[in-house]
Structures are given as structure tokens and as C-alpha cells.
Amino acid sequence: MTESDSSTSISNNLKEKRRWRNLIYIVSVLLTFALLTIQISVRKSSYSLKIGDVTTQDILAPRTVTYISEILTEQARKDAEDIVGKVYLPADPTISRNQSQNLRSTFQFISTVREDEYASELQKIEDINKLVYVRLDESTIRQILDLSETDWNTVQTESQRVLEQVMQNSIRDTQVISRIENIPTMINYYINPQIADLINGITRKFVVPNSLYSEELTEKNKQEARDSVQARERTYVTNQTIVSRGQIITPLIFEALDEMGLVYSDNNRQRITAAACLVFGLALFALVFFLNDSSKVLRLRETLLLALLYLLFLFSARLIIPNRVILPYIFPIQALGLTIACLSGNRLGIIFSIIISILAPYDFTDAICYTTFYIVSSITGILVLRKGRQISSFFLAGLSSGFIGIPIILAYQFTNKATDAIGLLTLSAASILSGLFSVGITLFSQYLFSRFIGLATSLQLMEIIRPDSPLLQYILSTAPGTYQHSLMVANLSEQAAKEIGADPLLVRAGAMYHDAGKALNPSFFVENQVSGNLNLHDDISPKESAASIIQHVPDGVNLIKKYRLPERIIDFVEQHHGTNVTRYQLNQAMNSTDSDQTNISDFTYPGPSPQSKETALVMLADTCEARARADKPKNDEEIKDLVKSVFDYYSTSGQLDYAPLTLQDLTKIRESFIKVLRNTYHPRVRYPDQHTKSKNGSQKLSIKQKTNPAPEDDFFDSVVQ
Q1: Are 550 and 600 contacting, i.e. CB atoms less than 8 angstroms apart?
Q2: Cα-flanking dihedrals φ and ψ of residue 598, to 5°?
Q3: DSSP characters for 332-344?
Q4: Distance from CA of residue 139 to its chain's centroid?
Q5: 53, CA 20 to 30 Å: which among 23, 68, 472, 490?
Q6: Mean pLDDT value across the chain
Q7: Geometric angle at alpha carbon 165, from 161 and 167, rounded to 5°
Q8: Distance CA 692, CA 109 (A)
């Protein structure tokens, strides 16, 4: 395969992986929306009920709740309002005088008609029927017309007296009838009964209310009575029955269910729209982060695992947390952020912690409290854990996460009147347990999932770079030169990794094992050859020589798998030579007699070229260290020229095309390499080679000085090695 074909293959592979990552992202968003809109909780969080329905099961209070009942409060206000009677104005004397005057005017008119000698009886009846203030029946009119003058005067006088006496008192509209009924008792007993009936009949028609109803004052009093009523509270304790099976949902019961978030409408349009808006917003938030975070490129399997972990935690939270009191605070949701931080870095851990903390308690009662608690405790745990290189770091992160959650819980619970001291202590203990459970899950998860995605956790890396690691011991015993070379490469690349924000621990581990395959055939590599001994490459063809050198890459992969090292280390073994060629052997083949049969693919490393900052660092450090060991630079200028030549070669050969390194990164790496190499190849002090004794028996230094150690092998082709 030519270099062009290899580049095309890598490019297509990257595009394919990008498409799969996009698909995982879209599916995750859709599943998130489904989890927010579908009722999946073990303890059902809400029911489709309305007033008048009959419940099919007992519904219990999920937590202790005290709320203001609008229904009970309104009923109390209505009762207070009903107690308020109608408000009447004081008796108006003007009304009483007017009625008395109207009665006198009526009598004067009748008297005039009675005295009319020219009018017939029918005419007089018609005239009296025209009275303005009163309507009299015909029999009463005839009786009036038949009265003698004395009796008529008696009627007028007594009627006037009785009316004035009645109207002197306050008369409301509800009292008119009773006052009229009392008129017969007020007429003098000496009057003829027939005359008395006539007086009663006329007088009663002029009795009207003189104390009028005031609607304005009545409404004012009613409003004051309503305002004086205090709001009525209802309290339900945890697991108290709100409604029993078979009971009809009354407005009061429905109000209690609604206050606890236990009912929802059959019309889900508003709820679905709200969930869609939230998911859309957080999806954009995550997208902006991934597009702007160039510090880490997620592998396909890593992307899949993160999505599955996120959906698993979201599903578990939506399944278990609803309508619980203690469980929301003991649920180890912090484990998601901590696990992702261990596997993929703190930035991703914090982002996922924020997202899961908002979505998990969405539409729950006290959702704001839960969200605040989850975000603060999760991020605190991640920040305290940092690189997580020791078990004690995990324990400290769990305690920090738990303790930081306590003031958050107290801040919200103090606003709840129903919370007591025992409840606060219980929730505080739940917070601490949540932190400890989370780190326990994190420790288990990172070992379980790191192999699946081919990542190495900090604890694993710390374990495999120990000098007593089995594979390192094997390399040291069989290929000591390779071991020393790997140590130097590790020092170079680790320091540079700190400068550009790569993972120093991963770089060091990868550098220690990048040449592990040489341990199987150490004598084929110059750093393991003893000066003056036979070089095995002299007895084989250039093609066989190149194959034996290239073979250390697949041999290294096999050793990594055999010793069950993290799969991430394989990348360093495969990519530290990229798709370079063994130039020394290739030149020999091209200069041989059968050069026309030379195939460049026989001299090319299988690659691929570096795909990450870390593997690119090891490639550059490997070549720089090899060149420095071969050339032995004597001053800063030679070191700078050496490093520059290596960087120029790799920059122009395309080996760094797929590594996410910027020009600024390359500058920092070059400066770091120069600094480390300068400290390594500084001039050494010459020491005396022997001691002589003076006459007094004391030791005396010889003037002859010991020379420098024997020179290294003359040939050390960095690209070949």
C-alpha cells in the first residue's frame, strides 16, 4: 500500500467514525426526550385523573407536604362572607315626611271630590281612581263617598296619626309587612270597626321602607370579612393515604394530588413542548462544547460508552427517584461525572454532570433543590479527584462530594416548615452515603469499562509504569538498551505533554512500552548490541533486515495483549513509527544488483500515523532521543539543529497530519525537547583514574585523569530504530 492509499484509508475511516458519532449523538437526544415524556417510575409520579373520576388504586403522599388549600380557604371566606348581614342606612325622615304629605294630599283630593255637588257618583269614582299616590278599589271608594263628614274626618285624622307613628321608626324592606300587620293594633278602639278597617286599608298603602339597603356598605363589610380569614393549610405526611381505591375524586382531593404533582392532564401537548425545549437547549449546549473542545477527540467506542452510561443513569434516576424523600439524595448520580472524568477527562465529566443533574429531576417536585445538589456535589467530587492516581483520592472525593451537599440540602429544607431535626440529619447522612457510593461505583466502572473502550485509567497507568511491572522487568532483563532508551523517551515526551495540555501520565506509560516488541529479538537492535560483536543484519538481505526491524511493532502489540495492558498502549506501539520506511535498508536494497525488484511496501511500517497528541509526542521524542544518542550533540546549537531536523522531517512527510497538534504546540514541544536534551548531554567533569599513597600513608590524587566512557555505536539510525 502506498503512502497516498494509506492516507486515503485513514481519512475515510475518520469520516466513517464521525458519522457514527453523530448518529450516537442524535439517538441519545431522542432517547433523552422519550425518558422525559414517558412515565417509567416505579412509584408512579403522576396519574391521569380529573374531578369526578373513581380511583383504581390507593394513592399515597410521596413526601411530607404542607400547602395552602385554595378550596378550603375559599370556603372559609365564603362562610365569613355569608355571616355578614345586609347593611342598611339610618332611617331617612324625608321619606316619612313625604309619605305623610302624600297621605294628606290624597285625603284633600278625595275631600274635594266628595264636596263636588255637580258630579255624579260614577264621575266621583272615576276621579278618585285617578289618585297618584294610591290605588283604591271601587268598594272602598263607595264606602268613602258614603261616609258622613264626621266619620270622614275621623278617617283622615286617625290615618294620619297612625302613619306618622309607624313611619317614625326605622323600617327596612324586610320589616314592611310586619309593620303593616301591626297597624290594626294602633287604631283607637273607640272607632267603629268598619271605619277602622277603612283606616287600615288606606294607611297600609303608604307604609314604605325608610331605612334603605346599602349595597356598597354591604360589599365592603363582606370584603373585610373575607380579608380577615387566614389561609387554610393542609398537611400530608409521607405515605399518608390521599385517596383510597374506589373513592371519587373531589375538588379537595384533586387539589392535594395536584399540589404533590401526582396528576397530569390527558392533553400532554404543553408537557411535551416543555420537555422538547429543555432537551433541545441542552443538546445545543453539548454540541457547542464538543465543537469547541479540541483538546480531546473521542473514539467511537468511547463515544458509545459515554452515551450508554449517560442514558443508563438518566433511566435509573427517572425510574427510582420520583416520589421519594431520601432516595433522591442517596442516589449516586455523581458517579456518572466521576466515571467519565476518570475515563475521558474532567472537562467531559463536568459537562455530563451538569446535563444529567438538570434532566434527571426534571418536572419533579423540588427539582431545583435536586438539580443544585447534584451539580454542586458532582463537580466538587470531580475537582477533588483530579487525576485519581490513588485510592485515597477517590475516598476523599467521595467525602467531599457528600459533605458539600449537606449545606445545599439544609438551604432548601429550612424553607420547609414540616422538616424536623431528625429529617435534616437523615438527609445529611444520605448525602454522605451518596458520595461514598458514587466513588465505589466509579472505581468499579473505570476498571470494567476502560478495557471496552481501550482507555487507560490513571490508576492503571500508575500500576504499569512501576519498575516492578512484569513487562517492564522482562524488557529490562532481555533488552536493557531498549529499556534505557524508553526511559529517556518517556522523560522527553512527559515534559512536553505538560506544556501542550496532553496527558503526561498516558504519554509516559506509552513511551515506556512503545518498543516493547524489541525484547523478543533484542540483538537485532543497535542499542542492545555490544560494541565489537557481530551485527546480525550483515548476514541477511536488506528486505529481511527491514522485516526483522519492522517486526518489533506487531511483536510489541502481542506482548501488550499478553500482559493484559490497557489497549490504549497499543496505539503507541503501532503509531510511534507511523508509516515511515526503514531508510537504511531501503537504500541498501536500492543500491543492490536486484534493485528493480525492490518494493517499498516491504520497508514500510504498518502504521497508522499518530492519531492523538500523545502518540505524536512519543514519535517525535523517540526519533529525537535516537538521533541524540547517535550524534552526541556537543552544544546547544547542535541540539537545536538536531531537534529542528526531526520536526521538519515529520512536518513535511505527513506523519503528523492526523494528530491534533497546532503550530504553537509544535513550538512548545521543540523547546521542551531542547531543554531536556541540553540537561542530558551537558559536559561532564573528568574524574581521577587512580589514587597513590603519600609517604605518610594518606591517599593522593594522580595528575592523570580518567577519560570519558567508551563511545556509543557509530551507527544509530533513528528512523530505522
Answers
A1: no
A2: -75, 130
A3: -THHHHHHHHHHH
A4: 93
A5: 68
A6: 85
A7: 120
A8: 167
**Which helix H or strand E contains 618, and what residues bound it?**
helix 613-631
Cα dihedral value 221, 225, 228, 233, nearest 10: -160
The CA distances from residue 102 to 159, 404, 463, in Å, are 12, 89, 117
CB-based burial of residue 468 (10 Å sphere; 0-12 exposed, 13-18 middle, 19+ buried)? exposed
Q: What tens digit of pLDDT does each residue of 223-276 get?
A: 888 889 899 899 988 778 888 888 898 988 888 888 877 776 555 677 789 899
Give every CB contact of residue 140 below 8 A, 6+ residues apart in sequence: 198, 201, 202
Record the pTM.
0.62
Domain boundaries, the chain: 3-42+267-455, 93-206, 500-519+533-693
Cβ contacts of 527 within 8 Å, gap of 6 or more: 479, 481, 482, 484, 485, 629, 716, 721
DSSP string across 82-141? HHS---BPPP-HHHHHHHHHHHHHHHHHHHHHHT-SSS-HHHHHHHHTT-SS----HHHH
Exposure class string for 359-378: b at 16+ Cβ within 10 A, else e: bbbbbbbbeebbbbbbbbbb
Cα distance between residue 619 and residue 527, in whole Å: 17
Cis peptide before 608 (omega within 30 of 0): yes
Q: Which amino acid is at 689?
A: D
Q: What is the pLDDT of residues 472-527, one digit of tens each?
A: 999 999 999 999 999 999 999 999 999 998 889 999 999 999 999 999 988 888 88
SS3 (DSSP) at 241: strand
**Residue 114 grid cell:** 266628595
For residue 235, the surrounding DSSP H or E stretch is strand 233-236
Are 141 and 61 within 8 A, CB to CB? no
Residue 720 amino acid letter? V
